[in-house]
Amino acid sequence: MCGRYSVVKKRVSPEHRYADKFAAIEQEPHYNAAPSQNLPVIPSSTQHIALFKWGLVPAWAKDLKTSKPINARAETLTTSPMFNRLIRSKRCLVPADSFYEWQEKEVKENTLFDLPATAKKGKTIKKPFRILMKDEDLFSFAGLWDEWLDKSTGELLRTFTIITTEANDVVKPIHDRMPVILTPEAEELWLDENEKDVLDLLKPYAADKMRAYPISNLINSPINNTPDIINSL
């Protein structure tokens, strides 16, 4: 799954492929992007960045008590009542510069990890890792979005979910799933509403272009949103 990520660049260079898409907003850095937050996405309808809430509320939901999935499995998109409609017409890019996953580790006497004082030998803890491109550039998750109308107020709520797939060789030692990261070429196809054959784009990203390193437990609380989160241990 993908439950946290970062997107900390406030602007991109004029030469960057995102330059025109980012023109509509100058966002604050998100070192610890978490579900229910308003985060930057690029929907296929406009192809310009906007803030949507993370956690999908489908248009047909009766109220906001419905489940709000933050992830959608690539393998079941076409058979899911919640996602099969969106894959055809409501795709989006979710810009990021890293994501986080937690590796389960058994506590041992001699360990390189910074363990909490309450950790006991033989117990299993979860250790967070930051996963990013080797060149630390921005990239895009494949996402789906929808809009829900609150009939009592007339407010239109726009939300999104991130598609996941099996882990590549960088992520696999940490977690068995990872978000779908699109190549620059695939980004354009994903945003093209006339392009129907997009399921083949939903595969693990090339491991040789990525790296991972352990970080502190600051990431565990969404209240924390500081540069210290991404420091390597």
- The proportion of strand residues reads 25-35%
Please name the CATH topology. Answer: hypothetical protein yedk fold
The span between the termini is 23 Å
Query: What is the top-level CATH class?
Result: Alpha Beta
Mean pLDDT over all positions: 88
- Secondary-structure element string: EEEEEHEEEEEEEHE
| Radius of gyration over all CA atoms, rounded | 18 Å
Helix content: under 10%
Low-confidence stretches: none
Question: CATH-wise, what's the superfamily?
Answer: SOS response associated peptidase-like
Count helical runs: 2
Q: How does CATH name the architecture?
A: Alpha-Beta Complex
- Integer tally of domains: 1
Report the structural category: mainly beta
Overall spatial form:
globular
- Quick one: how many beta strands? 13
Oligomer: single chain
Query: In which order are the strands of the major sheet placed?
Result: 2-1-7-8-13
- Biggest β-sheet description: 5 strands, antiparallel
Brief characterization of the structure:
The chain has 233 residues and is mainly beta. Helix content is 5%, strand content 33%.
What's the structural blueprint in terms of helices and strands?
Blueprint: E1 5-7, E2 30-33, E3 38-43, E4 50-54, E5 71-73, H1 86-89, E6 91-96, E7 98-106, E8 124-133, E9 139-149, E10 156-166, E11 177-179, E12 181-182, H2 184-191, E13 210-214
Parallel strand pairs: 4-10, 5-10
Antiparallel strand pairs: 1-2, 1-7, 3-4, 3-6, 6-9, 7-8, 8-13, 9-10, 9-12, 10-11
Plain-language structure description:
With 233 residues, this protein is mostly beta strands. It has a single domain (5-230), classed as SOS response associated peptidase-like (hypothetical protein yedk fold, Alpha-Beta Complex), CATH 3.90.1680. 5% of the residues lie in helices and 33% in strands. The protein has two helices and 13 strands. Strands 2-1-7-8-13 form a five-stranded antiparallel sheet, with no helix packed on it. Strands 3-4-10-9-6 form a five-stranded mixed β-barrel. A hairpin with a 6-residue loop joins strand 9 (139-149) and strand 10.
